[in-house]
Amino acid sequence: MKILVDADACPKPVLALCMTMGRRYGIPVWTVASFNHTIESDHHIQVGGDPQEADIRILNSTEAGDVVITHDWGLAAMVLAKGARCFSPTGREFRADRIDFMLEEREIKAKIRRGGGRTKGPKKRTPEDDRRFEASLEGVIQKNPSRPSGP
Q1: What confidence tens digit (pLDDT) does each residue in 132-149 have?
Q2: pTM, whole model, 2 decimals?
Q3: C-beta separation of 54 from 8 below 8 A
């Protein structure tokens, strides 16, 4: 098991929580970001600035049983297909039984924006988001039978 973080748009508190959990449970945390970002990580992969380059690297590095942290619904769908678990930085778990609906919703909103319409953006991040994310990540780590023993 490893934790892979789509670090291009990952909030700093979420990245810090991933690092803390990784150290606590002896799980490697891999961060992937374009060259435009400075990330302090024991396992950092820097990619170029091409669109989707970080997502492709994360996808290629993901194995069954891993945990991926991303905002990207398309990346979430692909890592779920590989048998990984996937969470948003707000602690929301992407699930195989809902991802098709989410991707359809994304396409409908993109179509509205292409037509000149407006859609709502993400809500402002709250301390509750951090608590929910921490609880979600710790819960999946503790339930994973292949994880190294921790506290």
Answers
A1: 999 999 999 998 766 554
A2: 0.83
A3: yes
